[in-house]
Amino acid sequence: xxxxVGKDTYRQLxxxxxxxxxxxxxxDTFHAIVKELYTTDEADLIVRMPYGMASFDKIAQVxxxxxxxxxxxxxxxxxxGLVMDISLGGKYQYMVSPLVVGIFEFTMMRTQGKxxxxxxxxxxxxxxxxxxxxxxxxxxxxxxxSPLRALxxxxxxxDADHVEVLDYEKxxxxxxxADKFAIGTCSCRHEKxxxxxxxxxxxxxxxxxxxPATEWMIRRGFAKEVSRTEMLENNARSKEMRLVxxxxxxxxxxxxxxxxxGCCCNILLGVSRFGYPNTVVTSNYxxxxxxxxxxxxxxxxxxxxxxxxxxxxxxxGDIPQxxxxxxxxxxxxxxxxxxDSLKLVPREQRVLHPEDTFERxxxxxxxxxxxxxxxxxxxxxxxxxxxRAMVGGxxxxxxxxxSLMSDALRSRFLTFMRRG
Length: 420
What we know:
Helix content is 43%, strand content 15%. The protein is an alpha+beta fold. The protein has 3 domains: 7-98, Arc Repressor Mutant, subunit A (Orthogonal Bundle); 148-346, Alpha-Beta Plaits (2-Layer Sandwich); 359-419, no CATH class. Strand 11 (309-314) and strand 12 form a beta hairpin. The longest helix has 14 residues, at 382-395.
């Protein structure tokens, strides 16, 4: 096989990763990241692999690698979290990891072996702090679908007969519905620790995984198995420490909850530092202040992890106001309100939370202009390449994308994709 070598290999790898569900714009820093994490042989294999999930036999067929060499390379990539090997129906399916949630998280969650963690932290920090790169590519066009969504802290939603908090919006219900649990290192806090920018006293071991994803996280050493009780205690500690709970942005088979602080979390910093409110999908609730009861103490303003509450000079003093454009509906501010004048209330329009991972991946890829790669996923096929170019151009047309994402067509479009 005439495999690519050197610089061209990594540039092709960059295009491949950028073609997944999360965009990864190319620049010198990203070039340095992929050179640090992938050998040239690993990079070449990723470039040749299908875009979506595929069996070992399918990958061997598409890439042309013999089984011995393929097995060795896949094992190396999976051990680093750069490829995920998930057991489905008793057989492993392999999928190239996107930048987020994937390459960044699993790299910074690694704790085994001789690791260059400090350098990885520096590279990721430089890449994610470029405002014209990652955040702009993934959130700069008003995208509605992101990998994470905020959960309202239990007890912070207004107590009213007509207000129903669904189970997928409750951290406790998510834990109770799962049968396997693991906790690992928070990638964001780990990165900030090595950059001397961790300003909080939140422990590193907080990242929660549930259900089928747990088996992979434990097997590959990214997390340690814990009991249901330990997981509930982890949630309770996060509530006490006023962390934002950010869950897998799906309604069913939720696989993880992040426990996020305003100083370290790159997703929350996307809102507060870089001005992209859609880096995390809000809950179906929003903070509301009763001005008659408010003591104008400023506690809620200090508590908000994304600076969504600001005081407003008036004849009654510094009355805080909620910026509805960036309020996450997480309830952290409510937890610190001593006068009970602050509660989460239902938003006027319910937020779009995909039913499951399939829907999230499809809609997220559509919004970021990469859905054609999942449909025609063989990078070695000229016919697939032609169809990716043709269908991709069609799907990127703003009217087409807007129509497929609309309430009127979205359900039928997703049903069609499932059947296809």
